[in-house]
Amino acid sequence: MSVLVYIENWNGKFKKSTYELVSYGKRIAAGLGGELSIISIGNVDETELKKLGAYGAGKVLSANTDMALDDKAYAALIAEVANKSNASVVVMANNSTGKALAPRVAVKLNAGLVSGVNGLPLSYQPFVVSKKAFSGKSLLQAEITSGKKVITLSQNTAGVEEFPGDVTVEPVDVSAVSGSVKVLSSDVQTGTILLTEAEIVVSGGRGMRGPENWKPLEELAEVLGAATACSRPVSDEGWRPHHEHVGQTGKVIAPNLYFALGISGAIQHLAGVSSSKVIVAVNKDAEAPIFTAADYGIVGDLQEILPKMTEAFRKFKANA
Amino acid sequence: MNFEFTEEQLMIQQAARDYAQRELIQDVIERDTHAIYPEKHVKALAELGFMGMLVDPEYDGGGMDTVSYVLAMEEISKVDASVSVIMSVNNSLVCYGLDKFGSKEQKEKYLKPLARGEKIGAFLLSEPEAGSDATSQRTTAEDKGDYYLLNGTKNWITNGNTAGTYLVIAQTHPEKGHKGINVLIVDRNSPGISVGPHEDKMGMRSSDTHSVMFNDVKVPKENRIGEDGFGFKFAMMTLEGGRIGIASQALGLASGAFERAVKYAKERKAFGTEIANHQAIAFKLADMAVKIENARNLCLKAAWLKDQGKPYGYASAMAKYYAAEIAMEVTTEAVQIHGGYGYVKEYHVERLMREAKLTQIYEGTSEIQQIVISRQVLKDF
Amino acid sequence: MNILVCISNVPDTTTRIKYSADMKEVDYSGVQWIINPWDELALTRAIELKEANPALVQKITVITAGRADVEATLRKALACGADDAIRVDAASGDSLYTASQLANAVKGDAYDVILCGIESSDYNNSAVGGMMAELLDYNSVSAVSSLNLDGNTIKVTREIDGGKQNIEVAGPVVLIVQKGIAINPRIPSMRGIMTARTKPLKVVPATDVIPASRVVSYEAPPAKSACKMIAPDHIEELVNLLHNEARVI
Question: I want to staple B84 with a disulfide (CB 3.0 to 4.6 A). Which of A73, A240, B77, B234 is the partner?
């Protein structure tokens, strides 16, 4: 009854979400009374891999390869390792990579798949997990009835826990692995905080009135160490790039703190941000539906309030 | 009896709703404020086939039934009646008149581009001194042998400047009264036509309303629709169908305002609860819902009769009269439910209220509809 | 080139979700059904590609699994511009069940590109596309936000965590698409609605597949406590609340 966690890396480095995933796997392994193994695909050095030991990794299988993400080849490799390590549960992140690989791995293992699981399983026998459905408007409990199970974890729902212990790193033979995806060019954000990874997100809507007004919003984000985001009309208008769009058809995020600035709070927008721990809304319309979803609200003109907010947070940071 | 829509009718309703709620809504307030003609929307709706949806596919139309037309008109009018009046005039007056009464040659030459929406049509009946009384036409079409010589002024012409094709009602034989009236297809670019300034209206501000002056305009004989003297009958028969378009427009204004009022009443709080929970508001909504349902049923009944080839003038007069009256009532109540917010442009309902007023006036005032209905009542009972 | 677009029928995204008394099922009475928003974008892109490359893209087929009542959705897809449609006459099941029904129905057919939305707005399981790819032994690319054809070469942009990659992938391939793949979902024209009347819609029987998971129960998400309003001239109070009460800064 062992557990296998697939982890990805960003230029050879892991992130907080990686540690959340590893320690989540550890807790599931404990619940099942089995071992935890980690499969890492990509170029990651031993020092980085050994960091996983602090979160309960136990054994890390490292498939050291330069090959770009190739759904078919990666999934085959993960399934093969899962079979070899006799894993009954395979865990991945519910992000673009996890969404690409988990379904293929599930078919290979003849396993049921539940994506976007919130926190630990509710029971192991039967294996029942909880997840959001209808884009956040409902929660459901699902039982995976097959012998093997694949789940993807919704980020920030399990938390990072430390399980100090020894870790062994074993190479995985990748000589036979080949892909059919040819990467022509990459455009990876550097220096800025990833939207899906950010603990604080500052997001602007149509109430910002135009792209020229984003400067103060970016200043607030900088003071808070936050990522910037936007609502759908804003990205549709081309005021901000599409990758900043959060909502039903954009990114679904779950930061600790979400600022909705000039966002009315259409149900499609809330679907993407309702998992945020705390929502602060600023809107000039006191009747805007965003206030029904928010924890703290300010009614007023953003052009006045935004600089004041930045100043207040700057003062707070300086004294902290 | 069957109150179910067909899958196709629902698909057309959805298509109109999608376009209205996704596209028209974006800039409707700006267009209203600055009286900007909705050129790109007319073009997009033409590409989707909404400008000639009733026309026979043989003449590049959509070949859809009048019930679908009612559903589409309601959805477009929920958001922008300026766009739906362009649609209504083109579909139910100009295209319908040409499709039903035009010759094959006239249809080939004039109906096809109108049905494709490449050209927009205008229907020129009203005059400075002849609105509701269409028999007293002062515009003259003098018979000059192989052409007519057109002189006079037409008023309140929707699409007056943008139209490529005019259908002009004019008097040829004054001594014959309304039996001397003709209807002519007139190319907008004919020499001798001048267009007055854009009318600065209370509502439907982005539709293009003008007076049109004819000064010795030569119109070829082959551009007359029907027999000599058919013009008055043509106008009356075409307007019977036009009433269904305007009735559906009024219905859409009412249901659009109603949807906003319901949403607002469920969000807005007063005295510790949503205002929808106060009976004063809840009962208003009940009354609005009943009126809208009645208006919709009248519109659909008239459309159904037309689709069945049965007489529908009485039904369409009832639909137009009732829908226009309740559009005024419902939009006014929607503003009332919104309170102060209802009186500002951002909440849309004040615009719908301004627009509703026109549905009581044009294509036959409410009083004219009462005449039509009462005459029929007195004849029948 | 033949393109298959998988579409799912979902409740309108503004639907308020209701449940049966025992909370074991969703109560779908009165629900307005729509094409899953991501699938609608996939279909739109397929039609755009066919319109731009009529010589290259021969046929667009749409497929769904469901009972007869989902045929309205297929006919809408035909009205939008798909050439033919397949309905697998299957009840609803889990992702593996649905993916297997779709894969079994098209196994052996020569589709060069299969398009699926990245998730459905009801169960948000992000699984059917990848599962179909594995079942059919196709390549797959997920989180695709743009798709172009350069002759028979398939060029896509995929979103990765923190950026995007422009890649080339060999067919046959399942492309699992997300926002960006098309901007405005296609609205059917009158002409499209008319021609849809005569386009073929094939119904194929379901195959025996055992689902691997099931929904045990539903619950409504916990209600949010009332929003605390802060006066615009007391921003420092917001800072204070976020620090001392919510403890997020």
Answer: B77
Q: Is position B85 within any domain?
A: yes
Reported as type and span, the H/E element at residue C205 is strand C201-205
Nearest to B8 among C185, C191, C193 (CB): C193
Whole-angstrom distance, CA of residue C210 vs CA of residue A21: 30
Would you give per-residue pLDDT tens digits along chain C (249 residues)? 999 999 999 998 888 899 999 999 999 998 989 999 999 999 999 999 999 999 999 999 999 999 999 999 999 999 999 999 999 999 999 999 999 999 999 999 989 999 999 999 999 999 999 999 999 999 999 999 999 999 889 999 998 877 889 999 988 999 999 988 998 899 999 999 999 999 999 999 999 999 999 999 999 988 778 899 999 989 999 999 999 888 888
Instruction: Kindly state the tokens that stand for A200.
Output: 């604080």
Q: Which residues of A touch B22 (CB under 8 A)?
A: none
- What is the 3-state secondary structure of A90-106? EEEECCHHHHHHHHHHH
Q: What is the pTM of this model?
A: 0.88
Ordered by where they begin, the domains of chain C are 2-218 (3.40.50.620)
Q: Does B11 reside within a domain?
A: yes
Measured distance CA(B16)–CA(B80) in Å, rounded = 12
Asked if B311 contacts B304 with a C-beta cutoff of 8 angstroms, the reply is no
Q: Which positions in chain A touch C225 (Cβ < 8 Å)?
A: 295
- The encoded tokens of residue B28 equal 């409707």
For residue B156, what are the domain limits? 121-231
Catalytic, B363? Answer: yes
Backbone angles phi and psi of A212, in degrees to 5: -70, -15
Same structural domain, A165 and A241: no
Structure tokens at C3: 């393109």
Query: Could you tell me which chain A residue has the CA closest to the CA of C176?
Result: A100
Q: Which residue of A has its CA nearest to C170?
A: A180
A129 and A67 in a common domain = yes
